[in-house]
Design a protein that fits this description.
By secondary structure, the chain is α/β, with parallel strands linked by helices. It is 37% helix and 21% strand. The structure holds zinc ion. The site of zinc ion (ZN) has 5 residues, from loops.
Length: 321
């Protein structure tokens, strides 16, 4: 039986799935990403997850015809590796070791958000050629399909939408070291610091938010959105998010934008609806359909698998005809 695999090397979790030619998952495995001691330890963990998912599917790793690998971090497509930005392990070799284990040359390596758009495209009813997958999570990024092509860039790092400059005043400094980037304001990791900035600007108003506590998280802002100050923060986040989205729409002309990531998935009415509400006023071209991903937390691993099933594109045209 022809089988296919998907791997999601995320910020915290490492997942592998093995599926049949219809994309029905036969076996899967999941463990936390090892925090060290080096990149090879992460590579070994990926091979272990693939072995375990194969065992769960009752197939040998060599029976897998193609595999998609989605990785969070800076990709190097030439050498087939990734340098994760969230853990200090250096370079993690991917293509070579996985190709050896599965005894196949069909290894498709993508940035996590690119896998996201492949998964969304594959599972969308109309299989659109032009779509964007936007994640609003601990970071922000976008996977982009234009004219049926998944944009990668020469090294695989197209789609770093979180590092688009949205604030020319540059009041917040991004984790990348530059000022005014979208994710410095609106990612889950940075919302608390941005809320603190707004609170000081506003002369420290009364608020139910634990604004000065180290325990203060993005989730607090959305959970207490009926607090007057929290509502103000939610409003400002919506403005930046809508601006970032309008930049993506003007750049890529998507028919559909699907949004995922924990910040969006957990707060659709406070994060996704306000973007949709503002787009008409911000976009001078056609306004795309904006929706929450139906794949939830599985969007990246499903996208990696969809890449294996479709030769790296998510295009199901052949399948449909
Ligand atoms: Zn940045």
């Amino acid at each position: 039986m022809a089988t296919y695999a998907g791997v999601d090397l995320g910020a915290t979790n490492l997942r592998a799935v093995v599926a049949d030619a219809d994309g029905t998952i036969l076996g899967s495995d999941r463990e936390p990403v090892p925090r060290g001691p080096n990149g090879l330890a992460v590579t070994e963990a990926i091979l272990d997850r693939l072995r375990a998912a194969s065992a769960a599917a009752s197939v040998e790793p060599e029976d897998i015809k193609a595999v998609g690998i989605a990785a969070a971090g800076r990709l190097d497509l030439t050498d087939g590796l990734v340098e994760p930005t969230n853990i200090s392990v250096g370079e993690v070799p991917l293509r070579g070791p996985v190709s050896n284990l599965l005894d196949t040359e069909n290894v498709y390596l993508h940035k996590d958000v690119a896998a996201g758009v492949i998964g969304e495209r594959y599972h969308a009813e109309r299989n659109p050629d032009d779509m964007v997958y936007l994640t609003i999570s601990s970071g922000i990024g976008a996977g982009i399909a234009v004219d049926g092509n998944i944009l990668a860039g020469w090294d695989g790092n197209a789609g770093e939408a979180g590092h688009l400059t949205v604030d020319p005043a540059g009041r917040m400094t991004c984790g990348c070291g530059h000022d005014g980037h979208w994710e410095a304001y609106c990612s889950g990791a940075n919302i608390p610091d941005y809320a603190r900035l707004l609170w000081k600007d506003d002369n420290r108003p009364e608020t139910a938010l634990p604004i000065e506590s180290e325990e203060f998280t993005a989730a607090d802002v959305f959970e207490k959105a009926n607090d007057a100050f929290a509502a103000q923060v939610v409003e400002r986040l919506a403005e930046w998010n809508a601006m970032g989205m309008a930049n993506l729409v003007h750049s890529y002309a998507p028919l559909v934008v699907s949004i995922g990531g924990a910040v969006a998935l957990n707060n659709e009415s406070l994060v996704v609806d306000p973007i949709r509400d503002r787009l008409d006023d911000l976009v001078m071209t056609n306004v795309p359909e904006v929706r929450l991903t139906a794949l939830g937390d599985d969007v990246v691993v499903e996208g990696a698998l969809a890449s294996a099933l479709t030769g790296g594109t998510g295009d199901t045209t052949d399948r449909r005809n």
